[in-house]
Structure formats: structure tokens, C-alpha cells
């Protein structure tokens, strides 16, 4: 490689950087670029003066123009609220059993309920409302309801929740932990699990299921019914439909019998939640949305 150093302009020095014999010349930046850079500095100073910019302890500088994106959003929300005020009033007092008769109101409720569901319910029930079996969050699409699937039943559940300490009217039931409380021996739980599998036609050991039948009648039928079809009045699941809240494998059922289950849902009505609670119109809206997802009731 040649060691000759050639510069296009003898008056231009170098930066002192060199790579494999290639020197970096210290050419000045283009004049147009320099002026653009100066203009951006001037624009930035002007923006910081005119608009909110500098963070302070309890907020930010207001700016000479007093512009606020929060205020702009608030105005937009107020405008939409004013436009929907009549529908919201009607949704607040509507008889939910007749809401489908009013196509305009029902359409408004379903659309509003979808947004409310996404913001408050999808974290547990999933964005598509299919539930999360591993966590015991019910699928809301299959028309299998623990506490009833009528629209007013859904509204009551949303309002008061399940097994929480917020609402005195919270839906409440409790399954015994048959293994932890010493009510049944391990071999009895095994037999009972096989009998529960037999109720929905799942693969099971016939001899163990036969031994588990009287155990079911003595310990489970009072809540789940003699045929295992459940009892909506107390939220006892139907064990004969192969729809499982916590999983329907032998191990899952054994765990449920041994340890019991105790799922909790918050009370969503604003009277029970100081912040983030739902108004009566919002409760009715999300009830209408959930009801139409898969309910035939």
C-alpha cells in the first residue's frame, strides 16, 4: 500500500484520526446544515417557552400558550359524553330483560361494554373472554354459568363479585378441602375422582368409580346434585358437562377434591370501589356485552 498522503485542499487539516493510512480531513460542515442546526435550537427554545416543557415537582411549566393535551382529551370526552347522555340515562334505568327490544340501546350497550370489558375484565378472562383454566377464570363464551347466565344474573355478579370482602351481597359458596381437613382418605379421594370422571363420560376406572359413588352421594351431592349437574343457586359447578373451571384431568380433579377451590372476583360497582368502580350504566353495558358473547339464555 502506498504511504503517500494526498489532500484535496492543502489548507484543510486533519482530525488526527487515521485508519489503514486513510486520514480524516477536518472539512467544515456544509453551511446549509449549520443554519438548519441553528434553526432547530431556536425552534426548541421557542417551543419550551410557548408550550408545557420543563418538569417540576408537582407538574410542568405551563407555557405562554397554556396548551394542555389533557385538557384537549377532557374536552373530547365531554363532547362524546354529551352526545351519548340520553343513551347513558336510558342504560342506567333500563330493564335488562327487555334491552334487546331496543336495537339502538342494545347496540350502544354492547359496544360500550366491549371497551369496559377490555379495560377491567380481560386481564383475568382473556381478551376474547375465553377464560384462563390454569387460574380458574371462567370461559364466558360457552354458556356454562356457575351463578346463572341470564343478563340480570350477570349484572348482579359484576356488581357484587364473588367471594370478596367488598360487598355484603357478594356471591358466596365454599367447597370443603376434603384432604386437608381430613374428611376423606387419599384412597377415597382417588375413588371419588374416578366417579367424577365417569359423570361426564371421561376415561375412568370402573371399579374405583363404583366405590366412589356412595362417597359422592354422602359428601358432594348436596351441592352438585345426585347426577352432578350442579346448582346455580350456590355456584356449584356442573360436573357432567365436561366443562372444567380448573381442568378436568384426573390430577386436576384430585387436587380440587383434596385442596378445594376458592376463586375470588372483585365487586365492580362504584359503591364498592373508591377508584375505578363502574357506574350502573357501565355495569349494565358490560352485562349486555358478556351476555351476547355466547349466552342462549
Please mark out the parts with pLDDT under 50 across 5 or more consecutive residues, or reply none.
none
Compute the number of strand runs: 2
Biggest sheet: strand arrangement: 1-2
Oligomer: single chain
Please state the overall shape, judged from the principal axes of the Cα atoms. elongated
- Termini separation comes to 87 Å
Q: Gyration radius, to the nearest Å?
A: 33 Å
Helix and strand pattern: EEHHHHHHHHHH
Largest sheet: 2 strands, antiparallel
Averaged pLDDT: 92
Helicity, in percent?
A: 40-55%
Task: State which percent range the strand residues make up.
Answer: under 5%
Task: State the secondary-structure class.
Answer: mainly alpha
How large is the count of helical segments?
10
Question: What are the defining features of this structure?
Answer:
297 residues; mainly alpha; two-stranded antiparallel sheet; 10 helices; 2 strands; 45% helix; elongated
Describe, in plain words, how this protein is organized in 3D.
With 297 residues, the protein is mainly α. 45% of the residues lie in helices and 3% in strands. The chain has 10 helices and 2 strands. A two-stranded antiparallel ribbon has the order 1-2. Helix 5 packs across helix 10, helix 6 packs across helix 7 and helix 6 crosses helix 9.
Amino acid at each position: 500500500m502506498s504511504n503517500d498522503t494526498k489532500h484535496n485542499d492543502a489548507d484543510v487539516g486533519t482530525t488526527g484520526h487515521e485508519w489503514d493510512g486513510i486520514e480524516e480531513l477536518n472539512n467544515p460542515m456544509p453551511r446549509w446544515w449549520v443554519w438548519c442546526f441553528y434553526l432547530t435550537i431556536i425552534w426548541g427554545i421557542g417551543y419550551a417557552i410557548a408550550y408545557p416543557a420543563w418538569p417540576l415537582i408537582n407538574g410542568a411549566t405551563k407555557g405562554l400558550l397554556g396548551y394542555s393535551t389533557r385538557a384537549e382529551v377532557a374536552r373530547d370526552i365531554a363532547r362524546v359524553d354529551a352526545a351519548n347522555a340520553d343513551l347513558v340515562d336510558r342504560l342506567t334505568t333500563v330493564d335488562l330483560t327487555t334491552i334487546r327490544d331496543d336495537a339502538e340501546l342494545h347496540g350502544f350497550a354492547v359496544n360500550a361494554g366491549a371497551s369496559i370489558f377490555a379495560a377491567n375484565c380481560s386481564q383475568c378472562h382473556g381478551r376474547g373472554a375465553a377464560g384462563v383454566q390454569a387460574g380458574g377464570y371462567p370461559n364466558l363464551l360457552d354458556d356454562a354459568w356457575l351463578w346463572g347466565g341470564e343478563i340480570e344474573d350477570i349484572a348482579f355478579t359484576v356488581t357484587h363479585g364473588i367471594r370478596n370482602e367488598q360487598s355484603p351481597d357478594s356471591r358466596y359458596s365454599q367447597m370443603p378441602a376434603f384432604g386437608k381437613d381430613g374428611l376423606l382418605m387419599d384412597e377415597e379421594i382417588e375413588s371419588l375422582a374416578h366417579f367424577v370422571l365417569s359423570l361426564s363420560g371421561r376415561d375412568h376406572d370402573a371399579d374405583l368409580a363404583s366405590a366412589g359413588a356412595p362417597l359422592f352421594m354422602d359428601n358432594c351431592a348436596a351441592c352438585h346434585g345426585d347426577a352432578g349437574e350442579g346448582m346455580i343457586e350456590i355456584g356449584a359447578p356442573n360436573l357432567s358437562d365436561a366443562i372444567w373451571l380448573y381442568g378436568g384431568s384426573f390430577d386436576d380433579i384430585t387436587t380440587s377434591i383434596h385442596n378445594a377451590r376458592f376463586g375470588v372476583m372483585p365487586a365492580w360497582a362504584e359503591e364498592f370501589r373508591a377508584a375505578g368502580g363502574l357506574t350502573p350504566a357501565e355495569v349494565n353495558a358490560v352485562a349486555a356485552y358478556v351476555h351476547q358473547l355466547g349466552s342462549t339464555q
